[in-house]
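Per your request, structure below.
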């Protein structure tokens, strides 16, 4: 029997380090330089240090007209107006009620993890640096059962697959996350024996590379806690680089198979034989073992392996956002704004320099010709307004040097540079709120729409990233939320106009042995839609309710008041609800309403009896004429009159029965479905009357037919 060959941990760590360095040097190093440059330009640090120093020595201005800041903020503002709304819909063998529960769970997760704030950071990273990353994984710090957490990663710390051709990480082979952690953080996360191993490496200087460590430098005044020191003696370790590599490997793995649909899902890592067989038997699934791609997570710190095992997750935890992505090349809007911004700064600085030299172009004078100042003072004060010069008699008067003329078109270059920034970014003056005052509102809306069309490419890629986040949340919920849990979701009742907190349960055992809202099974599609922001949700619903009221929708007054910002809106809404008949009736009101309904039905019954009596008299007269008819023509005429009266009677009885039913329906709507007992009594009585009327009409018809025969 052959034994599996053990792998040296140091070899695993060295291999992980080598792959990280290869990926870092492939494309990531160039990206880091570009990202740092873009961040500096956004912050206003746009001049090269050498160029800035040379201009300072020459006394020339170096202006920074930061149009990138306003442009990026306008694009970020577009994202802030489009909040995320993740919706799951059943597909194949999914369930509609379970999809509703998944929607409630996702809203709870996004709110608990402050997703709006996280997404703002990710979106800003993507717009400025060209890459933004979510990290979606399970956390067991606050909940022993685990909960989904969503964080943002610094794009400089994440290295995607250098050979990837798609923005979807499902097509990548690997992804690296580089973090700088203290020894305390490493010990709390991976165990203190790992910290001891790192300390031994430092003590004997047997580590792989010095680039994986940051040390406190020793200076004359004490410990310099911000510098690096290459000397290897008396060094205090500050931080250690931890490399987490998530990569796919081909491995045999058990899968659950639904034989009816053919859908397969891999068994989660750590599930033993008894658990997977019990799960398969409970849901009628088959178990097969097959080879496939499986995520492995290798985490190292220099030559120490912190973790090397199969991942808990079916896919990578990293979800990317790329504003633009073209065949493996992600980039952002700022990348294309650097050159126009440099052009704007340099031409504007040159314009100012020309103006300055024009104002103080210099003087020509004879030596010692000035009376009250010397040449050095004239050099300093020569550009002052209202300057008076006195020169000695017999000397030539000082002459001001004529400055060079401003080159034609230099001012247009700076204007062209500013316009180029707007054209490339598609952020026009209307989107910035700086349109001309004489421009009409329709023209401004049209300009905003044209700009949003080009920005919609970025928004579309953001929507794609949100869908990937939604799919990752669904994966984690189905794999880890296997026990009974309850989530609270807040919504508004349409009829009552009240904000209610609803509790949604998942994986709840029912009395018949079934599982309600079982999120561990089923196939669901993910849709990431946008909902407008602005104020609170109550403010949006208040405005929407007012618009619907203006369109003619009969929204009750207490619903409008409930969504307002009035201090005592609850008391006012309750008063309007009760006064307009939408509230819960008291026992006295219910008894009075029942008496009114009884009275109405009795009046309708009396009217029906009167109509019945009148028709009976008419029928008797028609029968008498029919009996006295002395000819066939008279007999046929009397028989036709008899049939007409019978039909008229049926129409009258059906009309009165319909009126009774409408009275019952009107009472039911008036009370807002609150008093079902009275409504059911009205409905039953109206059905009885209609049934009796129909039977009576059929009986009379049969009798007349028999007599005619």
């Amino acid at each position: 029997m052959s034994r599996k060959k053990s792998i040296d941990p140091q070899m695993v760590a060295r291999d992980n380090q080598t792959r990280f360095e290869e990926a870092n040097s492939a494309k990531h190093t160039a990206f880091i330089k570009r990202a740092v440059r873009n961040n500096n330009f956004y912050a206003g640090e746009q001049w090269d240090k050498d160029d800035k120093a040379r201009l300072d020595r020459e006394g020339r201005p170096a202006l920074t007209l930061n149009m990138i800041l306003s442009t990026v903020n306008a694009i970020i503002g577009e994202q802030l107006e489009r909040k995320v709304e993740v919706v799951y819909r059943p597909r194949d063998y999914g369930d509609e009620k379970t999809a509703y529960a998944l929607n409630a769970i996702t809203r709870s997760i996004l709110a608990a993890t402050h997703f709006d704030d996280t997404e703002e950071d990710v979106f800003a990273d993507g717009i400025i640096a060209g890459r933004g990353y979510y990290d979606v994984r399970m956390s067991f710090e606050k909940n022993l059962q685990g909960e989904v957490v969503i964080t943002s990663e610094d794009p400089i710390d994440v290295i995607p697959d250098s050979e990837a051709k798609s923005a979807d990480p499902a097509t990548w082979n690997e992804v690296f996350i580089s973090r700088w952690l203290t020894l305390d953080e490493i010990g709390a996360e991976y165990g203190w024996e790992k910290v001891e191993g790192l300390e031994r490496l430092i003590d004997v200087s047997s580590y792989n590379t010095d680039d994986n460590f940051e040390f406190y430098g020793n200076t004359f005044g004490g410990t310099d806690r911000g510098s690096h020191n290459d000397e290897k003696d008396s060094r205090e370790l500050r931080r250690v680089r931890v490399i987490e590599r998530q990569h796919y490997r081909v491995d045999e793995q058990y899968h659950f198979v639904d034989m009816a649909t053919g859908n397969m899902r891999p068994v989660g890592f750590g599930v033993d034989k008894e658990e997977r067989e019990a799960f398969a038997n409970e849901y009628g699934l088959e178990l097969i073992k097959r080879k496939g791609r499986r995520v492995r997570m290798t985490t190292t710190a220099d030559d120490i392996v912190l973790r090397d095992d199969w991942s808990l997750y079916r896919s990578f935890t990293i979800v990317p956002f790329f504003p633009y992505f073209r065949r493996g090349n992600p980039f952002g809007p700022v990348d294309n704004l650097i050159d126009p911004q440099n052009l704007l700064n340099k031409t504007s600085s040159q314009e100012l320099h020309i103006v300055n030299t024009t104002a103080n172009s210099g003087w020509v004078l004879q030596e010692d010709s000035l009376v009250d100042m010397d040449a050095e003072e004239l050099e300093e004060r020569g550009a002052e307004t209202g300057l008076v010069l006195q020169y000695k008699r017999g000397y030539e008067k000082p002459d001001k040097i004529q400055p060079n003329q401003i080159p034609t078109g230099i001012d247009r270059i700076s204007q062209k540079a500013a316009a180029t920034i707007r054209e490339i970014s598609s952020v026009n003056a209307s989107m910035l709120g700086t349109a001309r005052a004489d421009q009409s509102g329709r023209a401004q809306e049209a300009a905003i729409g044209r700009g949003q069309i080009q920005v919609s490419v970025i928004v579309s890629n953001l929507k794609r990233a949100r869908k990937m986040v939604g799919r990752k949340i669904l994966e984690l919920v189905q794999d880890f939320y296997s026990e009974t849990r309850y989530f609270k979701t807040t919504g508004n009742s349409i009829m009552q106009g009240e904000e209610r907190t609803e509790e949604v349960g998942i994986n709840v055992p029912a009395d018949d042995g079934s599982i309600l809202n079982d999120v561990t099974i089923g196939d669901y599609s993910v849709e990431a839609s946008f909902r407008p922001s602005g104020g609170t949700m109550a403010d949006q619903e208040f405005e929407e309710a007012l618009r619907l009221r203006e369109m003619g929708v009969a929204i009750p007054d207490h619903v409008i008041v409930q969504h307002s910002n009035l201090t005592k809106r609850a008391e006012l809404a309750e008063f309007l609800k009760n006064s307009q008949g939408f509230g819960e009736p008291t026992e006295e009101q219910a008894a009075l309403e029942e008496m009114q309904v009884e009275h109405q039905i009795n009046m309708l019954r009396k009217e029906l009896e009167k109509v019945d009596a009148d028709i009976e008299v008419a029928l008797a007269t028609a029968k008498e004429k029919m009996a006295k008819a002395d000819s066939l023509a008279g007999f046929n005429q009397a028989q036709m009159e008899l049939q007409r009266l019978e039909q008229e009677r049926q129409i009258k009885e059906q009309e009165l029965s319909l009126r009774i039913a409408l009275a019952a329906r009107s009472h039911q709507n008036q009370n807002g479905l609150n008093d079902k007992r009275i409504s059911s009594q009205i409905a039953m009585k109206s059905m009885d009357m209609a049934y009796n009327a129909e039977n009576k009409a059929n009986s009379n018809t049969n009798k007349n037919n028999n007599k005619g025969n």
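The mean pLDDT is 79.

Regards,
D.
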